[in-house]
Fold:
Amino acid sequence: MRNAMAKKSKFITIALSVLMLGSLLAGCSSGTKDAGTATEQGSGNSIVSNSDNIGSTYPLATDKTLTYWAEYNTTKSTIDEVPLFQEWQKRTGVPLKFISPPSGQAKDTLNILLASGDLPDLIEYDWFNFPGGPEKAIAEGYILKLNDIIDEHAPNLKKFLAENPAIDKMLKTDNGSYYTFPFLRGDPLLQVYQGPIVREDWLEELDLPLPETIEDWHTVLKAFKDEKGATAPLSFQLSFLNEGAFVGAFGTNRSWYQEDGIVKYGPLQESYKDFLTTFRQWYEEGLLDRNIANVDGKALDANITTGATGATIHNSGSGIGKWTPLLVENDSKAKLAAAPYPVINRGDVPKFGQKDPQYTTGTNVAITSKSKNVELAARLLDWGYSEEGHMFFNFGQEGLSYELKDGEPVYTDLLMNNPDKLTPSQAMSLYIRANYGGPFVQDKRYIKQYLVLPQQQAALDIWKNTDVDKYKIPQVTPTPEEASELAQIMNDVNTLIDEMTLKIILGNEPVDAYESYMNKLKTLKIDRAIEIQQAALDRYKTR
Structure:
């Protein structure tokens, strides 16, 4: 449930048409107000112009079928078999034909689709990953500019945006173009889900407090190694550094941020060298996983569940929620707890930390330029911002996946204690979209139930205590030309920074090599990348 620059991937195919794709896509989870009212949905009064005579109330009257391209991870063989999507069609009255790429191949499959020109009506994708950004995707004729469409055919979303001008600002490009029906986090509680995690039972046994400072962490990790026999006291996937864990204690991070409106690139700051110095020392002392360069999800699972690791950086759900029952199977006293983002001086507020924006770009739906049923597509998607749509996407079907208790939706055992032994996450993927995303506003009442362990709920309160809002760059949109240039620059820059970070931490190069790497960074046009990001931020402020 889960922004740094997207990882690059190369795609090879025998078709000549795919060679054209380099210019297309080579770059680079409320207490909210319901988006719409029952009166608007069911009054019987026309609230939009209906050129296709589809009616103004749901289910809509249509004999047309929309084609819908989306990646969706489910225990079913196809999206068509998922009860959620079957019920969505019944409630909206809109028949759908789903097209789904193989798992992990969404970008490559979409490349071929775009090159073919044979586009479906709807595409669910992260258009920030399109080279040149969403504005270029509009200009090149792949997706539609939605301003007039929302104004005429999406009354629920239109109402929501009018009531939430800050979100409205996020959804547009610098040219003022709307381009997707968005997934929105409806409460700050939903924006934080990641941070440092530690074996609380070990801390209690060793009479150590929850670590706050870098010095505290050194003491804790050394005790884990010496007293608990941890062979990889601190282990994590390197990508988790991007949100500022540990790096942030030194006043910088692994990616972009801004201070007083001035864009900065984290590794370019001298304090990044201080982070490297500290982690090199920890590695030499055996406090950091000796295989840190190759830690993936499976390796981390093994480290945590076998007791090789006592601290990590991970999520409340797929971390604390996943590992706790596995640990308790072997040791009933085992406990995991969230720790604050580290600082240098006790009492300081962490400068950085993970916090998603209210608008996350990954599971949003665009209407393509090839759609012959634009109004129908808009009405289908707008339903998600109605009261009925809000409840459906967040909680599913009353009496099946949730029940109302004292006026509040409560998930049933179908989701939380599934009779087919599906995990809550797996069961949810069949009946709701709150733990995945889509065209609706996520409700905080979902997360309060999804995080069933008190340690998970406590984690959100601990991890949210940062100043990241002051420093995070919003969802800026460089111009198409800038976006392409930025992607090319950052491809080389990120490769260099990853190389430097690992070599210095692992002791393959001295810490003083940092300066030579910064010189190389200059030759890779990092200053130009900063200019582009600064210009995009300046334009964002004037939207």
User: Anything to note?
Assistant: The first helix runs from residue 16 to 19. Confidence is low (pLDDT under 50) at residues 1-50.
